[in-house]
Structure formats: structure tokens, C-alpha cells
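Sat 14:20. Reprocessing the chain from the morning session after the first attempt stalled halfway. Input below, unchanged.
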Amino acid sequence: MSTAATPRPALAGIDPRGPRVAASLTSLVLALVLVAPQPLSGVLLGVQTAVFAIGAVRGVQHTPYAVAFRRLVRPRLRPPVELEDPRPPRFAQALGLAFTGGALIVLLLGATTTALVLAGLALVAALLNAVFGLCLGCELYLILRRATSHPSPAR
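Finished this time. C-alpha cells:
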């Protein structure tokens, strides 16, 4: 019996510039949610919620924003220097889904101010990623991963 660990299959990486472009598009949509009149703002919020749902369930590389990046932006860029693990951005998509999904639910219940606050918080997170490359959801994923990982026993 071998004591060597079974190698884990390599994860397919994503171009790290893609999520930043997606965050820019997300920022635009969420900014419009905050300034557009009803029912347009509700429709835009629903669209962004659907985009986050796709990213959370299927992976960030399957969102319409990622498709636009691959077809319109990436061909004009040099190949990425390195690829990124898709799990942190996927977790960030789930957090975006929680905020925008919550905003959509309370908007439908008539709590417009609460909906706008939740959408505004999602906008701040998207802007941090778009402008500074700081993905709050990705950072939270890494913190949670470290907090829940079990160190191997010392020999």
C-alpha cells in the first residue's frame, strides 16, 4: 500500500482580468439600479441577480459578463501571466447573489429604501474590485478557508 497522497486534479484557472471587467459591468448595472426609476430599476436588479446566480451556481466563467470578456476584450489583450483559482470569485458571486437577491425580495415587498441600501452595498463591493482589484468576497473566501482548514498533525 502506497503512502503517497493521491494527486488532486488541477482546477481550470480563469483569466484574473475577467472578474475585474465583470465587476465593472456589475458596477454600471448596480449604479443604474440606484438612479433609475421604477420599474426599470427593479428589472435591472433582477438581471444582476440572475447574473450572480449563474456565477454562483455554474461558475464565474459562465456568466454573460465573462462571455463578453472572452469574446470582446480578451482577444485584444496579451495572454494572462497566470491563471486564477475560480473558487474565490465564485464565492464572491454567491455573496453578490445574497445581497442583490435580498434587495430584490425586499423591493418586491415594498421596502424600497432597504433594497437600495442592499444594492448600494453590492455596488461598493463591485467598485472595489473594478477600481482597485480588491475582491471582498474572494478575501472572505480565503479567510473562511483558512479558519476551517485543519492543520496536519506534526510528526
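The first helix runs from residue 17 to 35.
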